[in-house]
Structures are given as structure tokens and as C-alpha cells.
Amino acid sequence: MRRLRIAINTMAANPYRRHAWLEDYLTLMRALAPLAVKEHFLLLTGEGQDEQAGALPPNVELLAVPRLHRRGGCPLLFDAMTLPSIIRDQRIDVLHTSHVAPLAVRCRLVATMRTLHAYTVPALLPRGVRVARRLATRCAVRRADLVIAPTRAARRDIAELFGVETSRLRVVPGAVDCEVYHPAGDRVQLVKVLDRLGVKSPYVLCVSSLWRYKNVEDLIQAFSVVRRYYPDFKLLVIGYGADAAYRAALGDRAADLGLTGSISFREAVDRDAMPWIYRGAQMLVYPSEDETFAAPIIEAMASGCPVIATGVPSLVEIADGCAVHYPARDLDALTKCMLDLIREDDRARFIARSGVARAKDFSWRNAAELTLAAYRFAAAG
């Protein structure tokens, strides 16, 4: 019997960093493949990226698409000009994409909505990004046979924004590998990794792409107050400067507050080093005012790092009582949360222990089971 052929467009997951999600998809496939006795998977990615894949299950293969991964490539043109021929030639039954979906392909379509910021906080995005994202997102939602949301809160937003009926919506949360992200770790190795990266302890950590709605300027402002009481503290911000003007403004704000030597901005860190960075942090602060999901929160929780996050519904849902929340844009509340966690060791340890337990709910096995069910539902029509 012919296997159901499913293609996953990994380049559509993040149009601004076209390979940012490939490793996650590879992890998902390794968890999903043993369950998929009737399916074959084709991961679409850019040239050269197949070299990082390593050994794959027999029912999973990579297809490198020439030139489309290069900086400045247009995902809309890729979908319009290249995807239809790939789907035809590879006899694809189901295509899984993200915000960017083809206008017309002869197969079933599953679309994952990883962000809704072009609709929920449009004024905080550059105009070109806002227009392109709104067009692409609306097209993907309307075209999809099944829409995947990463949280129940995001599912509600999608239903309200686009009028999507419940039968076309599924929730598939993100996942974390608790064998990689965990609180246990050799102290000597931790010091070596932080020294190699030039990270000085104690430090507050923020892991987030740098869009204006992420509100990192609020964290910088609150950190300036924390430094008055704890001058040895540093702030480490790890995230791609998606909005270049905003990234520059953050640097200017840090300089204005006299924090240039106390704040470090890193666009990226070796993935192998990230668990150590979480373990070494005094806390993770996630000041965003709009999210559908936040992988850094579950990675931090799994690593035993206490989390402070805004009260955005999806973040409250993710943490489920295992983080400290405050109202977005409330600087006084954020400052108090940070100071309280520094001063109250018992509370910080309790939040860290609770987070480790909560993170185990976000397993790749669970994500694989839900994803496979979504594919089969879409294929059944």
C-alpha cells in the first residue's frame, strides 16, 4: 500500500531566518517517524542544510531547494514558483507550512501559526513587515485545510481574527528536550562554558528576537534600577535583531542609562551552550506584550531557571503557575519582580523546581502524536 507523502516546508517557519526551525523539525521527525507506519516525510530546506541533519529515520528525507535559502530570498516567490512543481514531482499528499502558504497547490494543506503580531500589534512592526505578514497570514489561514495553533490562547485569537471554525483548528504546543535542557550540570563545566562565551555572573537573561513588541526596552529600564541595589549584576540579551532600527535603539538606551558595560547583546549562541546559559542565569525575563508561544520559557523552566514573564494569556498558559507574572508595560511591577527573586532565595528555588516539573509536559513525544493526528485528519479531508 502506498504511504501517505507529507512535505514540511521548514523555510516558511521563520521567513527572516530561514533555517531557524530546521533542528526543531529534525527532532520532531525523530519522535514522529516511529509512530508513522503509513507515512513518508519530506523536509524542504535550503542548499547545504542537509549536512547538519545527521542520520534520519527511513521514512524521513531532506530535499535541498537551490538558492532559496539565501539572504533576501522571497518566500512568497518560492511558494508561487517552486512549491507547486515540488509537490507534483514528489507526489505530495499533505503540505505543512507556516505563515507563508502557496496560493494554489494540488494537495491538502496544514498551516502552523507561530505568530499573529501583524494583526495583534501591527503598530509595533515595520510597515513592510506588517503588510507582508498580514497578507501571508490571511492567505495561509484561508487556504489551509487545518490550522495549528501552539496554545489554546492562540487558537482563540485565530478563530476571532479570521472566523475559522473549530473543526479546522488544532492545538500542538512546542516542545523541549528535557534530556538536553535540565538543571543538573557540573559546576566546573558551567564556569568553563560561561568563561568561553565571556558571560559574567550573576546575570539576568532575556532570550527573544528583537521586535518592538518584545518590550526589551522595559527590561533595560528595570535592570537599571536593579543595578542600583546590585551593581555586580549583568544583563545578557540573546536574540536576532529582526528589527534593525529597534536593535540600535536598545543599544542607545543602554548607553543613555550608563549600562553599556553591564549589558551584552548576542545575536546567536551555539545551541549546545544554551542549556548552560539558562542554568547559570539568576532568572529569565520575558517582557513581551504579544505571543502565541515562547520556547525560551519552557527551555528555562526545564533548565531550572526561574522565569518572570508578562501576563499575556499564552505565557500564563505555558507557565501554568510556575512563573512570576506582571502586567505588560508596568515597569514598577517588573522591577519589583526582579528584585524579589534576587532577595527571596526560597521563592526563587520553589519557582525553579516547579518550572522543571512543568516543562516535562512539553515533550517531543506529545508534539509528535498531536502533529501526526493533524496530518491524518487533513489527509482524510
How would you characterize this protein structure?
With 381 residues, the protein is an alpha/beta fold. It has 2 domains: 190 residues, 3-Layer(aba) Sandwich (Rossmann fold); 173 residues, Rossmann fold (3-Layer(aba) Sandwich). The chain has 15 helices and 13 strands. Strands 3-2-1-4-5-6-7 form a 7-stranded parallel β-sheet, sandwiched between helices. It has a 6-stranded parallel β-sheet with strand order 10-9-8-11-12-13, sandwiched between helices. Helix 1 crosses helix 15 and helix 8 packs across helix 13. The longest helix has 17 residues.
CATH H level, superfamily name of the largest domain: Glycogen Phosphorylase B
Terminal CA distance reads: 19 Å
Over the alpha carbons, how many angstroms does the gyration radius reach? 21 Å
CATH class categorisation of the largest domain: Alpha Beta
Side by side, the strands of the main sheet go: 3-2-1-4-5-6-7
Q: pLDDT below 50 for ≥5 consecutive residues: which ranges?
A: 15-19, 68-73
Number of helices: 15
**How would a textbook summarize the main sheet?**
7 strands, parallel
Strand proportion, as a percent range, falls in 15-25%
The SS-based structural class is alpha/beta
The overall average pLDDT, rounded, is: 91
CATH architecture of the largest domain: 3-Layer(aba) Sandwich
The shape is: globular
Count every beta strand, where a strand is a DSSP E run of 2 or more residues: 13
Tell me the CATH topology of the largest domain.
Answer: Rossmann fold
Order of helices and strands: EHEEHHEEHHEHEHEHEHEHEHEHEHHH
Q: How many individual domains?
A: 2
What percent of the residues sit in helical stretches (DSSP H or I)?
40-55%
